[in-house]
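Sorry to interrupt, but I need a hand with the structure work. Leave the record below and I will have a look:
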Amino acid sequence: MALIASLGGLALALIVVGVVSGTVLRHVVQILPVPLALALVSRRPAIGAYAALPIFVFWLLIVSLIWLFLAGLSTIANGHYTPAEVISTVVMALCCAHGIRRAIPAGRPATLASRLMTFMVFAALQLAAMWISFSPSIANR
């Protein structure tokens, strides 16, 4: 249940960012791996935990880059961030940190090979979703 709540909170915070920034389609594409992870968490919790884990790690990294930019320490995640977007990053970070903390022990019943394979597949899915979300056909809508 904690993983479902963390994934749901993360997705909701990203949709809020999309609404505030006028980039809803981009953010919907970015969270496409989340429903897949939710389905796995619901059906096979041990495997689902390691489907959710790379999603949480990815978004925690993105949020950290945004915060480093806002603190003037990095230019990687540059841009203009409204107060609503900054608050959303806090929600995202909390959901990710909680999700990571709960995913690791929840996945232990699965074999190491299945955990690693699931992690790698969902890491690739999340990276692909982010990449696609910045394609001109998505970004210009």
About this structure: The mean pLDDT is 94.
